[in-house]
Structures are given as C-alpha cells and as structure tokens.
Amino acid sequence: MSPTDLSVVAPALPAADTDTPQREIPQTEIPQTENPQPESAHGESLQDIVGGGRVEATLAWLDNHPPHLIADQLARMDAVQAGVAFRLLDKDRALAVFEELEPVDQQQILSGLRGHIFRELVEEMDPDDRARMLREAPAKVAKKVLAGLSPRERRMTAALLGYPEGSVGRYMTPEVVALPRKLTVAQALKVVRVKGTGAETVYTLPVVDLGRRLTGIVELRELVLGEPEAMVSDLVVTEPVFVRATDSAEKAARLMRETNLINLPVVDSEDRLVGLLTIDDAVEVIEAADSEDVARQAGAAPWAGHYMAAGVFQLARYRAMWLLLLLVAATLTVSVTDAFEATLSQAAHLALFIPLLIGAGGNAGAQAATSCVRALAVGEVRVSDLLRVIWRECRVGLVLGAMLATVGMVIGGLFVSAQIALVVGITLIIICGWAATIGGTMPLLAKKLRIDPAVISAPMVTTLVDATGLIIYFTTAKLVLGI
Fold this sequence. Notes:
This protein has about 475 residues and is mainly α. The protein folds into three domains: about 5-125, no CATH class; about 180-285, CBS-domain, CATH 3.10.580.10; about 330-480, SLC41 divalent cation transporters, integral membrane domain (Tetracycline Repressor, domain 2, Orthogonal Bundle), CATH 1.10.357. Helix content is about 60%, strand content about 5%. The strands form two sheets. A three-stranded mixed sheet has the order 1-2-3. Strand 5 and strand 6 (about 275-280) form a beta hairpin.
C-alpha cells in the first residue's frame, strides 16, 4: 500500500488541529481499493482524482488551477472529499478558494476543521464575506465563528450583521481608506500606502470631513497621475453617487451597473461614511437576485449551494410545494370544462382545439410576466406605470393573437367546419390579448402589495389563463355557433 493514499487523510479530518492547512501527507496506511486508478489524465475532474485516492495527482491538479475552478470542484463533492482536497492547499490558496465558495459550501468545509486552522481561516476573511457566510449559517456555527475572531474583526462582523436582511450594509466592506480634503496629492498617496494594506480596495477613495461625513470621492488614478503639490480638494468629485446602509442591496448593485462604478460609497442616516460596496459583491448580489427570480418564475423555491451537489430528494422538495399549489389551481380548468359539458356535447369538435388554445394563452401570459418581472428588476418599469403596461401588453397580445389566429383558422379549416375554425380564430385573439394583459399586470400588482414579483411566476399566470381561456372559448362558441 502506498503511503500517499488519500484515504488516510479523510479519517483524520474531524480532528485536525494544526497551525495551517497542511500539504504534508500522513504516513499511516489504511487499506485502499485494489487496482488504483492511473495518474490523472488531461481534463480529469478533481472529484475523480480524489475519489481514486491519488495524492500527488490531487496536488498537481490544485497547483495548476485557479481558485474559482477549485471552488467549483469542491462544491460538487461530499463533505469528506471536499475536506480532504481543501486540507492539501497551502494557507494563502486555501483562503482564496474558501472565499470563492458559496456560504453553504463554506459551512461544509468549516465543519471539518478544528483549532488553529478554523480560527485563522475565518480571521483572514474579508468582513463582508464573513458576514455573508454567517447570514446563512446555523446559530451554533455563527457563535463559534464569532467567538474565534479577534476583537476588531468581531466588531466589524457584528456591525455588518446588525443591518437589515437584504440591505447594502450586509454586503459592504467597512475596511475603507478615507481621505481628508485638506491634503496634497503626495500626502494622500502616503496615507494610501500606510492604510491600504488593511483595506479591501483602494481604487475608490472617499473624501470625508472631520465628522467622517462623505463630501466626495477621488479615484486612485487621479492621485497617481496628479501633481504631488496639487490639493485633493481640486481633484475630488463633490457630488458622488452613494447609497445608505439600509437601502436595498439589489438596487444598489444595479445602480453600480447603470453608473459603471467599481465601488459605491455607503453612508449612514447622518451621511457618515460606513463602507463601500465593491463590484465583486455587487455582481454576487445581482446573480443571487436573478437566480431567485428564475427559480420562482419556473415555479420552484430557490436553493443555496451547487446544483450538482444537491440531492434528488432535496431538489424535489424545493419544487414539490409549487407543483402541488399549481395542481390545486388547475382544478379550475376541470371545473370550467365540466360547466360547459352541454356545449361540448353539441359540438364535439370543439374539444380538439382546447390544448392549442390554452397552450397559446399560457405561453403569451408567461412571456408577458417574464418580461415585466425583468423590467421591474432592472428599474425599467415602476408600479406607477401600471396603466401604461396594461395598455401596452393588451395591444401586444392582440397583435400576437391576430397572427396566431390566421394560422389557427387555416389549421382548423383542414379538420373541422369553417364556423368552428372561426371560433378558434376569434378565441385566439381574445385569449392572447387577455393573457398578455394578465401576465404584465400581476407582477406590478404584486410589487404594490409588497410581494416578490417573481412569486407571481409564469406557471401561476399560465394556470390562471388556462381556466379563464376556456371560459372565453366556450362563450365565443356559444355566441358564434348559437348553441
């Protein structure tokens, strides 16, 4: 048995108490599967290499891949395999990889670390990344992490966690280099050199007064290119874009995208500087918000963590509730069909076009709902635009309905009488106009009622349109056919 067998690392994982993440390979041997796999082939995943028990190939893979790819591979593994691979990273690489992981995956890694490794890892994290992890951590884990921090790091982390959920304060970095106005460029650069090592970013430098109130910003580029004797006050932008710590993080992140900022100053209720929202955190906020919207629009609850690491029953649990609700809502369709049973018995051919009509209406409603949710998210539409959206989507739906009706009447004429084909054509126009109006209106109404617009998802709109679409269809049939 080879002394570099990876299986010897796993049993030791829960009891690790070394000073730093180690690359040293234990010498104790544990029986390994016969006929071990050959050395790593080009393109082989870290999970396959670790699963094959090949330490040297694992070390080579870790050395040859950047932190974000290592983090992606760790997120795909179970707790033991991820812990084994993580412990083979040196200290600096371990921190870089750890900060690339999602909070749920970070908790999985931490659960296998003890003593100095645990404390040093969380101590070296940026305060905003640490707060992000603790937001979703169990109370026991959060308490353990906070207890192991130095007083300074504990104060900063506790301050971030004290802001409302979803606010900018939860995502900003408090480690900021702020400059007084009455400095020369040379003096300002000296301040940056002295304090910059403890800051997360120095590219955007807030300018403050004696009360630490934000009075402007200056970019590092301006200082580097400026004359040493020039005053900072001559270079400062005196009307900077900023947000308050209690503002929505998603709105702040989208504001950064609209204004092309790489850092956004954050102030408290008295305009005192409390931090910066950096571009990497803004991207994560937008990604999380968009992922949640996509999940809800698809009729599923959002989940944390890597998709490939989620179990079958876990994914089913996130989707089941919505499907059950939609199943109950779909009983409306059954009730409508039953109510118009007499109409169907007199014109049995009407039943042929039910799937076509409800499908077209559902799709038109889903398109409108998705477009409206997206427009709300990026600030292109506001609740005050409700009437304009209704008028706009109604016309779009009618145009689409007319296009579909032309094709539908041709198809209907091939199979049934001209009268029923006419019923199908008229119904398509009305259904598409109605569906687009409903799909565009419901997210705005949800926003007005302080409900997440994404909850008014495409499946819910589709189910509602299905039931009302049948009423439109059978009513039109009765009027046109005289039955």
